[in-house]
Structures are given as structure tokens and as C-alpha cells.
Amino acid sequence: MRRILHTVTTIAPSNIPVLITGESGTGKELIARAIHDHSKRAKRRFVAFNCAGQAESLLEDELFGHVRGAFTGADKDREGVFEYADKGTLFLDEIGDMPLPMQAKLLRVLETGELVRLGSNAPRKTDVRFVSATNQDLKALARQGGFREDLFFRINGSHIHLPPLRDRREDIPRIVRHAITRFAGELLPGAPVPGITDAALMRLTAFDWPGNVRQLLNVVQNMTVTAFGEAGGGAVTLDVQHIPEDIRAEEHHAEPSETGGVVSLAGTSLEQLEKRAIRETLKLTGGNREHTAKLLGIGERTLYRKLKEYGLR
After folding, report:
1. How far apart are CA 311 and CA 307, in angstroms?
2. CA distance 270 to 243
3. Distance separating alpha carbons of residues 285 and 288, to the nearest angstrom
4. Could you give the CA distance from residue 277 to residue 294 in angstroms, rounded to a whole number?
5. Which residue, 122, 114, 111, 105, is CA-closest to 66?
6. Start and end of every Sigma-54 factor interaction domain (predicted)?
7. What is the DSSP letter of 240?
């Protein structure tokens, strides 16, 4: 990780495009933000946009915007993320999922520094630091005809690869402690930062984390919420019992049930973790859904959908 951070601080002051690769959840957006924060554009906007699952027409509108009357319902001009991020950093995640026709339009914008809104013929200047990310092998995708080779060369000015968390376990304790500080500050600003026992830290370090940093952060947030809820205003220390049961069980692949049988929890860890995190946060906030959504870092509509999905009230 030190090598990656060194690369970040080395390339940040320039405007060279950066391509970040790695499995889902490895922290690609965090690295993109770090590049922005160490750049000359740090006081300007950092704008992140995910290209996955976007229809071509919607994607073009999101990226480049439209003018009034461009299509039914376009009752006013709207800027896209390129203009919104002007003079700042634009981060396009999952760029490998972008349709080929849109890749050609993106390449033109990157090469000319100009874009055209939907429904218009007038070019507009754009000035962004361009950072992109993917969990795919774009070289192989280009050979198969699924990604433009010229666009690959254009966005691959500097390449940063993030290995999965299981291959850099030495980073886990640092990530955990940083996350505890962050989540505790969100729960009770000004309160002492909770500690974590060596046993709990060892359990977390031993886990393989198929969801990488994203999954680890979700678990630490869950642990922090649970520990605060149990402490009742007293000193807070995260321990093994605060690790979600499915994570503890998966370390041994299965664990005995109360009836003596074996309950397999493989493949359900993220779903169970999400349900428990929502339940515990609701308890902590006294059922305040707006506060719960804010603490969990999700929108209220997403929270309502999850409550219905998991049968929570």
C-alpha cells in the first residue's frame, strides 16, 4: 500500500489521466479521491459517476448534459458531470461497461477538451482531471472488440492496480482503526474514540474479505453501532462478539447451532450484515429513519426499500 500511496502523491500534481484497476470493493474511489486531494485541483469539485448499467442515451445525458427541448421532458438546460466537475476531478467508475458508441464520444471529449450537450451543436469547453476505474481487464476486452483500444491508451496515462484485501492483510488493522474513528465520530461527535481488542483485530485480519475494503468497512460500521448501543453511554470497546455472526462463522465455514446441527452461512454474509446494520442503527436512533439513513450513508428511499425487503419496521 505504501507503494500505491507513493504513486498517488507522485502523479497527483500533474493532469495525466489515471486508470485504477482492481476487484470490486478494493477502494478504487478512495484512491481517486486521494489523487484529487493531493492535486492542484483539491479545492475544486471531485465528481464520481458509475457507468455500469447505464443505457447509452441516459449515459450521454449524464456525462454531457442537454439543452431545453432536446427530448420529451427536457424543459430546461442541464449540465452533465463533465461540466459539473469543471476545473476539478471527474472519476468514471466501471468504464469497461460503457457502450462502444459512447466510448467514441468520450474519446473525442478527452482529446479535444470540448463537449456538445444533447440537442445542441454548440461545443463547450471542459477542463477536468480525468480518472477512471474498472474491475475488468481492458486490454483483453479491447482484443475481443469490447473496448476501444485508442480510448484505452488515452485513459491509461498512469495505471494503479489495487490488489484484493486478502493479499494485503497488513493493511487491515490500519483500515479498521481509521474506520472506527470515522464511524464513532459520525455516531457521537466529540466522544472518545472506541478501542478494539487484539482478539477482534486478529479475527478481522484472518478473514478473506471477498467484498474487499467495502465489506470490511460495512462490518466495522456494524460493530461500532452495536458496541455503542450496548455501552449505554459508557466506555466503548469493540470485541469479538461485536463481529457479525456470519463473519465469525464463515472463518470456520460453519458453526454448531443450538440444537447441535451445523448451520452453513456461506454466501449470505453481506445480506445478513446489511440487515443487522439497519436494525442496530434504527435501535440507536430510536427509529428515526432520516437519521438512520444518514448514519448508514444511504438515501432514505433506499432505506425504505431495504426495510420492506428485510421485513424490518
Report:
1. 6
2. 13
3. 5
4. 13
5. 122
6. 1-225
7. G
From 56-65, 137-146, 213-222, 226-235, the region with the lowest mean pLDDT: 226-235
The pLDDT tens digits for 6-60 are 999 999 999 999 999 999 999 999 999 999 999 999 999 999 999 998 888 899 9
Burial letters for 254-292: b for 16+ Cβ neighbours within 10 Å, e otherwise? eeeeeeeeeeebeeebbebbbbbbbbbbbebbeeeeeeb
In this prediction, residues 100-108 reach a mean pLDDT of 97
Structural domains of the chain ordered from first start: 2-163 (3.40.50.300), 169-310 (1.10.8.60)
Closest CA to 131 of 242, 30, 249: 30
pTM: 0.72
Long-range own/partner contacts, residues 7-13 (CB < 8 A, 24 or more apart): 7/158, 7/160, 8/34, 8/35, 8/38, 8/160, 9/38, 11/35, 11/158, 12/36, 12/37, 12/38, 12/39, 13/38, 13/39, 13/40
